[in-house]
Each structure stands twice: as C-alpha cells, then as structure tokens.
Hints:
Keywords: Membrane, Transmembrane, Transmembrane helix. The protein is 68% helix and 3% strand. By secondary structure, it is mainly α. It has one domain. β1 and β2 form a beta hairpin. The termini are far apart. The model has no long low-confidence stretch (mean pLDDT 83).
Amino acid sequence: MPYFILYGMDLVRMGYKWIDLIQIYSLNLLLIPVNLAGVFMSINQAITGKQIPFSRTPKVIGRTSMPSLYIVAEFSLLAQLLFGFITNYMYRNWIYSIYNLGNAILLGYAIFKFIGLRSCWEDILLSINRPPEDTVSHWVEQRVAIDLEGAKDLQER
Length: 157
C-alpha cells in the first residue's frame, strides 16, 4: 500500500490525477504474463547459455498483434481471480474475496480498455490459422522503403 501512495503522489506532482493510479494498477495486472514470460526466457537463457532470438511481432493495421498464448494467459488469470473470489466468498474470507474481486474487475477493465475483446479474438484466430502472408496482406501494414540518398539530395537543394 505505501508503494501505491508514493506512486500516486508522484503522479500528482507530474500533473496526473489520483484516479490514473487505477489505470496504472490495471495495466500492471495486464503485464503479469508478459513479465513472467520474460523471467522464464531469462532463466532458459541462463541454463542453456543460448541467446533467445528476437522475433518480430506481426503488425496489424492500427495495432500490434498479440501472441495467443498471452491472450489465453490473460483470461486464465482473470478466471483464477474470479475463482478465488467465489471460493473465498463461500468460505467467508471477506478480505481475500474483495481483493480477488477488485483485481478481477481491474484486469477485466484492462483487457477491455487496453487490448479489446475484438482484438483478442482476431489475434487468437490469426495465431490458430496462420495463413500465408500474401493472403493477409490487407491486415498487415505496408512496408515503406526509405531512399536515404534521395532524401540527402532533397536537403541539399
């Protein structure tokens, strides 16, 4: 709790409102699977000694596509929080049930606000189907080739 009070005070000093702390907390919940994946990849790299290759994230018009594993992880975390709420509520553990419900609501908000339900569905379908790149060219952003020599000539004029 003191961490979030200090975090909120810093936000207020920078011109934000205290309510923005809720969005930051929900974003932190949303990033749990990504952080865990990074930790597991680092452990794998430490054990094997092999550097993990950087793979490009497929671009979809207007946004970056998410691997379906992360989407499944987000909804699994949401389901676990809801299950924790129900279980703790049934056993009359009021503090834990409120904690689980609050986190579930904030994670659901983050999924809806920052990712979007339609985008989740599209990314899962895209990961499952994996069609050839030329058949989804209307989904993929066009690549732009920059001619630096031509730009240099334009600057000199």
